[in-house]
Write a structure and sequence with these properties.
Layout (H helix, E strand, L loop, with lengths): L1 E10 L2 E11 L4 E5 L6 H8 L7 E6 L5 E4 L11 H5 L18 H13 L16 H15 L3 E5 L7 H12 L4 E5 L3 H7 L2 E6 L2 E6 L2 H36 L6 H13 L26 E12 L2 E12 L3 E5 L6 H9 L6 E6 L5 E4 L13 H6 L7 H10 L16 H14 L4 E5 L7 H13 L3 E5 L3 H7 L2 E6 L2 E5 L3 H8 L24 E2 L2 E2 L9 H44 L9 H36 L1
Parallel strand pairs: 3-7, 3-8, 5-6, 6-7, 12-16, 12-17, 14-15, 15-16
Antiparallel strand pairs: 1-2, 1-4, 8-9, 10-11, 10-13, 17-18, 19-20
Helix pairs in contact: 3-4, 7-8, 7-17, 16-17
């Protein structure tokens, strides 16, 4: 359907693509990935014919239709929501004969799709310009789905969707009749949807079969293979050069030395594995340590008008907590975060900060944190911290605001740029209690990895909301489920929460209304910030002794399981080491096909090792829980 042939494209002396090619077929569902500035949006523009390549061709099969959803700022006029969803003159079309008419079936379909995207029937006749930017993007998304173009091109489509709508959208796309090309930072979304990954790296397009997790495995194996081949070749070159340097000065051996030089020149050089460029690299400056009790809410009431969210709410955060808030939409997660931050004021009760606590709030709506009329540098400089402009510009540079980028107005920044700027402002005046509402929205995958690495080193207290399962698993050590004003704490990480609630999937569990037994009136039964099990007065002493004996047996069994997993992990690591060492030996390459076999074995062992390590971590987590209960 679509062919990108030997395309080159550059701007102002910088090359984005050099001889890049891609074949896109009717059944393809591809994720497009790469670091900031690699050229993802530019490739979309080339496909949409919004820009022309410097060299090469972008061609389509005759009659193919293309629908495009930009990341933000899609056009809008005076139409209603329903009119927008049934406006079929799409400027993203690449075919001249792509026209539709808003007939009865199309209108009925638009209404079904709008409902799936969480619009109410009363919204259909509202002027679209009255909606927020996120809801306008949903209406544009409905328009594309009504049209059903042959190729659906989506740029970060999940940014404006709540989790429940995202799950509906993900399910709808699984059954979509056309081909899909999507840019997304959401690993779980890519894992559930795509059958292939196209990576933009060092001016080329690299295609992989499988979802995002499989792509990571393949790329790692590929880089290991390339590194081994590079080392082998460098050793061979070094051996030949030793001969040349030793014998070329002697007349009797100069000819042989010259032959060795020619042998080196004839080699097909293996490059060292390519490293990603233009990624965010930062660490949170470590703040002053707070007291053990960080923040307490006592008997707090809060309502939006007649809509009561919390009554007599009790909550306490301890130093070092890394808590993710989960629960259905409208349950009060963002409200709790704002109450903790002091952004909104409770109607009754008490909010008590602990000793030396400094709160930092990272809003889901970046515009609440930034002044649109300011430049990037002006906004970053608006900080109580006593720092120099040189330091500020250095930190901005770490977040990819370089050279004249610091003079761009906040109003023209992309969603990802606004997120990075908001992070800069937090870093300039670091808190020791960090409250974050969807911090990964608009960040690309490399930036999310950098944020995970930085938060892993953060010594303060963290409470956050996210629908990024990868991010949650990487950061959270506690889970707090919220529904209808009821808080249910889980003193373990996200996998522990999934195990306890017997969740059907990691994604669905984020918005489940009834994951487990709740605690009345939003008040967890706690003592010293930890869950306390109350003894049942109807249980006899004999039964309690039996329960203790059962618990000790379970602990012994779990220790054996952990030991078994550790042994398996060690064995696989040893096997992986042996295979890698053999691959690096020059003699390996004298046996035809041996290197290929070794690489296949390494990939299989790496896959087994990742799976076994995950099982070991789960068993070790369960062991720690059992030890804490005895």
């Amino acid at each position: 359907m679509l062919t990108v042939s030997n395309v080159s494209k550059g701007y102002g002396g910088r090359t984005l693509f050099e001889d890049a090619s891609l074949q896109f077929n009717r059944t393809d569902r591809l994720g497009l990935v790469g670091p900031n500035g690699a050229g993802k949006s530019t490739l979309f523009k080339l496909i949409l014919r919004q820009e022309e390549p410097d060299q090469g061709l972008v061609t389509f099969q005759r009659g193919i239709t293309v629908g495009f959803l930009p990341q933000e700022s899609a056009p809008i006029g005076e139409e209603t929501v329903l009119e927008l969803a049934t406006n079929f003159q799409d400027p993203g079309t690449v075919s001249d004969d792509y026209y539709f008419y808003a007939d009865g079936p199309a209108i009925a379909k638009a209404k079904r799709l709008l409902k799936g995207l969480a619009f109410r029937e009363t919204d259909y006749e509202r002027p679209a310009r009255e909606l927020s930017g996120g809801w306008v993007m949903r209406a544009h998304l409905a328009r594309l789905l009504v049209q059903e173009p042959d190729i659906l091109m989506l740029d970060e489509p999940t940014n404006h969707l709540d989790l429940e709508t995202l799950l509906w959208f993900q399910g709808y796309l699984r059954n979509y009749a056309g081909a899909i090309l999507v840019i997304s930072h959401d690993r779980e979304f890519l894992n559930q949807l795509v059958t292939g990954i196209v990576e933009i790296r060092n001016e080329r397009l690299y295609r992989y079969v499988g979802n995002y997790d499989v792509f990571l495995e393949q790329r790692e194996a590929q880089q290991e293979q390339q590194l081994a081949a590079f080392k082998n070749q460098q050793r061979e070159i070094g051996r030949l050069m030793d001969f040349v340097n030793k014998f070329r000065a002697k007349a009797s051996t100069a000819t042989r030395a010259q032959a060795k030089l020619k042998q080196i020149d004839r080699m097909d050089r293996v490059n060292s594995p390519e490293q990603a460029s233009s990624t965010v690299d930062f660490a949170f400056p470590q703040p002053e340590q707070s007291g053990q009790r960080v923040l307490t809410l006592r008997k707090v009431d809060f309502a939006y008008g007649e809509n009561v969210i919390y009554q007599r709410l009790e909550f306490e955060a301890q130093r070092g907590d890394r808590t993710v808030l989960v629960g259905p939409n409208g349950s009060g997660k963002s409200t709790l975060l704002k109450l903790l931050a002091g952004v909104i004021t409770h109607q009754a009760g008490e909010r008590d900060l602990g000793l030396r606590v400094k709160v930092g709030y990272f809003s889901q709506y970046r515009t609440e944190m930034l002044q649109a009329h300011r430049s990037v540098l002006e906004e970053a400089s608006d900080t109580p911290a006593r720092v120099t402009e040189l330091y500020i510009r250095s930190l901005l540079g770490c977040f990819l605001f370089r050279d004249d980028d610091v003079f761009k107005k906040v109003s023209v920044l992309s969603g990802g740029e606004k997120t990075r700027l908001a992070l800069v402002k937090l870093l300039l005046d670091p808190p020791n209690m960090l409250l974050m509402d969807e911090p990964t929205t608009h960040l690309d995958i490399a930036s999310i990895d950098a944020l995970v690495a930085a938060l892993s080193e953060f010594i303060g207290t963290l409470i956050f909301i996210s629908h990024d399962v990868y991010f949650i698993r990487s950061i959270a050590t506690k889970v707090l489920h919220i529904n209808a004003g009821v808080l249910t704490p889980y003193a373990g990480d996200y996998d522990y929460y999934l195990e306890k609630t017997k969740a059907l999937s990691a994604r669905v569990a984020l918005t489940s209304a009834t994951p487990g037994k709740g605690l009345s009136n939003g008040r967890p039964e706690t003592k010293g910030g930890r869950s306390e099990a109350r003894p049942n007065p109807q249980v006899s002493g004999k039964d309690r002794r039996q329960e203790g004996s059962d618990a000790r047996k379970a602990l012994s069994v779990q220790k054996q399981k952990v030991s078994q997993w550790e042994t398996m992990v060690a064995a696989l690591e040893g096997k992986q080491n042996d295979l890698a060492n053999e691959l690096e030996k020059p003699t390996t390459y004298t046996t035809p096909g041996r290197a290929l076999t070794l690489n296949q074995e390494i990939r299989a062992v790496s896959h087994d090792l990742a799976r076994t390590t995950a099982d070991w971590e789960l068993a070790a987590t369960r062991l720690a829980q059992l030890e804490a209960e005895i």
